[in-house]
Write a structure and sequence with these properties.
mainly beta, 23 strands, about 40% strand, Tachylectin-2, Chain A, globular, five-stranded mixed beta sheet, about 325 residues
């Protein structure tokens, strides 16, 4: 596998060039709290066409490139930026349909770099099936077109549901999808290369109980306050398949997987929690380099880019 951007680029160089803004780190009873991992602002999304960034993934083909997608209602465009948020290109995935694109993942299969676009949003839980689109990652150009490598149509075994978090577990050749509105959220798996071209049924792995559970009052008042802070809205797995992150509207949860451990079991261990404060509409998260630096952004025009460095965790 080709290495991604170096930690030096994402941390030392950017932290020297940009004003460091520390965000308060709040306590959480079900996660280890590590104040030294406070996020820093490293840039903002300069491209006005990226107005609802719902998914982000680092390039597996070229250093210092991040790919982003917009939420539903946007065109079928995948955007490229550098780690400071400057535009680096885009491509049109014409064969796909953006009904509700909610997450983006990158991986290498047979030494070929791919992107997975997860059309998994379903606010009202009415859609019988959902789509995963796979495309061989192109080099970033000003404007380009790309063809689908393959597509997966899937349905849930327990009925339609809304989800905004998807990742690729390349070691086990599967995609993982985490539901949003279930309490606790449910984790599903879909084979990465199913033999059947028709709609397949995802496998429910179980519930994830390591994320914070909302109080009855939280749930009751959320429609009025517009604060669903406990809901998972993004997920990523590191290139070495040893670490993963889940993003909620309020924090990033970092997990480490033991050798031979299944991701379902790893996600039910005690994570490290880093608050992102009241970051407006935070919905996109991705590993930025070797699986220790994490980038977060949100669904606003010119949204900031946050960086969290977990290198010290990896050395423990």
């Amino acid at each position: 596998m080709k290495p991604g951007p170096s930690p030096g680029f994402f941390v030392r160089k950017l932290m020297r060039r940009w004003l460091v803004i520390l965000l308060a780190v709040t306590a959480c009873s079900d996660a280890r709290q590590e104040p030294r991992f406070a996020p820093v602002v490293i840039g903002k999304l300069e491209d006005a066409d990226i107005r609802e960034a719902s998914g982000i993934a680092r390039s597996q083909r070229q250093e210092n490139i991040l790919w982003l997608i917009n939420d539903n209602g946007a065109k079928e465009i995948v955007h490229a930026i550098n780690p400071r948020g400057a535009r680096r290109g885009e491509f049109d995935l014409k064969e796909a349909k953006n009904r509700d694109w909610e997450d983006l993942a990158s991986f290498r299969l047979d030494d070929t770099p791919y992107l997975m676009v997860a059309d998994i949003g379903d606010n009202d839980a009415r859609r019988k099936s959902r789509s995963l689109y796979f495309v061989e990652e192109p080099a970033p150009k000003k404007k380009d077109k790309a063809s689908l490598a393959w597509r997966i149509e899937f349905e849930y075994p327990d009925g339609p549901r809304d989800a905004e978090s998807a990742a690729v577990d390349i070691e086990n050749l599967r995609a993982l999808v985490l539901s949003k509105r279930d309490i606790p959220p449910r984790l599903y798996e879909i084979p990465l290369r199913p033999g059947d071209d028709g709609t397949i049924t995802a496998t429910r792995l179980g519930t994830i109980r390591s994320l914070p559970k909302p109080s009855r009052q939280d749930v009751e008042f959320a429609p009025k306050t517009r604060d669903w802070h406990w809901q998972p809205v993004g997920m990523d797995i590191s290139q070495d398949n040893r670490a993963a992150v889940i993003l909620t509207y309020r924090a990033v949860y970092y997990y480490q997987r033991e050798p031979g451990q299944d991701w379902y079991d790893a996600f039910n261990t005690r994570p490290i929690r880093v608050s992102i404060g009241r970051f407006p509409n935070a919905e996109a998260v991705a590993f930025g380099d070797d699986g220790r630096n994490v980038v977060v952004t949100g669904e606003n025009k010119h949204s900031p880019l946050l960086l969290i460095d977990f290198n010290e965790v990896a050395e423990e």
